[in-house]
């Protein structure tokens, strides 16, 4: 049985940063993730996409953010159970928990922090007869490496931020990008909609609306899609393509965590914003997986929630100890292996 202080379910950015904050308080963490690698959505859905709202980083690729987080927590030596889904939880008489995965691995901890994000990644798929024939053979539901699409003909379908953002991003990489949406209006950010329109006017992107894909064709791999305009004439056209990427979003599924007796609202776990604890004392929920009035599903909000969660967990694990907050700039960062990173020297600039 794996034993730790804080058992974190989900190794996305929130779970990873929780390891750092816990480490500062000398609490050891172990993370479970259903995916074979750490990084959550950043690693699985958009590793090569730049993020612009991480404080201190004007621009950082999602994959690089994950690498940096892994580097930041290295000295705290967290444990990982990867490629296994947390399935059941049992509260023992002493108030501690045993969490067992689908592969039977048992984890024991006094604190459980659920950082499960969207839960299991289930893409919403278009209803097309022979779709499965082309999955990973021309059809993909998320873009992991944009380089796959270099100099290729790509059709993207969807009307949200992902469809807009990737159409804009791939316009510079693919030989041809066509964006198809069932409506003339998009649900995404206004500036993305404007950018798509601009690219269309410059001839760098084809936009077909309102329209839908009604057929896929090709011998061994995808060779063309059949598009039907949503109009009275119901005009149809074949588009020769190498890739079809329907970006209809991920249907959020909490999975087995939904049966743990936690208070759930719209597929998210309700928490108290004092310390992000759930209705079960000792079980916290941080990051995209939780909900409270004013909740925003942003990485920086997950970081904040992880920080406050760790303070509360510390008090639960050490009710007799008084917590004194120290800035990392003052104390440096000591890992569990005893390595100590010195606090960077203050640089004082003289203002002329
Ligand atoms: C295309 C796209 C662009 C985005 N752009 C931005 C942006 O610019 N800025 C921003 O702040 N945010 C952005 N986001 C949102 C951001 O990625 C999320 O807010 C963030 O990933 C949430 O982190 P998390 O750690 O809470 O959850 P996640 O990243 O979702 O990680 C949760 C992890 O938990 C695991 N898990 C779930 N259930 C279980 C279980 N039962 N057992 C084991 N493992 C489990 C999952 O496998 C997953 O790895 C974007 C999202 C997308 C999809």
Automatic annotation (TrEMBL):
Cofactor note text: Binds 1 FAD per subunit.
Protein name (Swiss-Prot/TrEMBL): Ferredoxin--NADP reductase
EC annotation from Swiss-Prot or TrEMBL: 1.18.1.2
UniProt key word NADP: yes
Keywords: FAD, Flavoprotein, NADP, Oxidoreductase
Domain FAD/NAD(P)-binding: 5-293
Enzyme class: oxidoreductase
Co-factor(s): FAD
Provenance organism: Maribacter sedimenticola
Entry similarity comment: Belongs to the ferredoxin--NADP reductase type 2 family.
Organism classification: Bacteria, Pseudomonadati, Bacteroidota, Flavobacteriia, Flavobacteriales
Residues the entry annotates as binding FAD: 14, 33, 41, 46, 86, 121, 288, 329
Assembly, per entry: Homodimer.
InterPro entries: FAD/NAD-bd_sf, FAD/NAD-binding_dom, Fd--NADP_Rdtase_type_2, Ferredoxin-NADP_redctase_2
Reaction(s) catalysed (UniProt annotation): 2 reduced [2Fe-2S]-[ferredoxin] + NADP(+) + H(+) = 2 oxidized [2Fe-2S]-[ferredoxin] + NADPH
């Amino acid at each position: 049985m794996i034993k730790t202080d804080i058992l974190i379910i989900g190794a996305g950015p929130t779970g990873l940063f929780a390891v750092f904050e816990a480490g500062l308080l000398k609490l050891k963490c172990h993370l479970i993730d259903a995916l074979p690698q750490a990084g959550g959505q950043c690693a699985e859905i958009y590793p090569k996409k730049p993020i612009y709202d991480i404080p201190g980083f004007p621009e950082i690729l999602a994959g690089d953010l994950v690498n940096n987080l892994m580097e930041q927590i290295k000295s705290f030596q967290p444990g990982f159970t990867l490629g296994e889904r947390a399935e059941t939880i049992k509260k023992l008489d002493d108030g501690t928990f045993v969490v067992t995965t689908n592969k039977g691995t048992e984890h024991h901890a006094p604190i459980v922090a659920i950082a499960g994000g969207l839960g299991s990644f289930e893409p919403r798929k278009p209803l097309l007869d022979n779709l499965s024939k082309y999955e990973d053979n021309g059809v993909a539901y998320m873009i992991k490496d944009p380089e796959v699409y270099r100099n290729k003909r790509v059709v993207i379908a969807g009307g949200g931020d992902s469809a807009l953002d990737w159409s804009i991003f791939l316009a510079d990489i693919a030989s041809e990008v066509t964006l198809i949406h069932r409506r003339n209006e998009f649900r995404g950010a206004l500036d993305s909609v404007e950018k798509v329109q601009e690219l269309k006017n410059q001839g760098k992107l084809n936009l077909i609306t309102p329209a839908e894909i009604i057929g896929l064709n090709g011998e061994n791999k995808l060779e063309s899609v059949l598009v039907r305009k949503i109009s009275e004439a119901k005009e149809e056209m074949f588009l020769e393509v190498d890739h079809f990427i329907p970006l209809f979003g991920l249907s959020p599924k909490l999975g087995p965590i939904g049966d743990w007796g936690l208070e759930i609202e719209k597929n998210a776990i309700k928490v108290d914003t004092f310390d992000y604890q759930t209705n079960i004392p000792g079980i916290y929920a941080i990051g995209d997986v939780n909900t409270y009035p004013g909740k925003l599903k942003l990485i920086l909000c997950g970081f904040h929630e992880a920080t406050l969660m760790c303070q509360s967990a510390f008090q639960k694990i050490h009710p007799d100890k008084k917590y004194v907050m120290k800035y990392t700039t003052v104390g440096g960062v000591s890992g569990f292996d005893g390595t100590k990173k010195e606090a960077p020297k203050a640089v004082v600039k003289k203002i002329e």
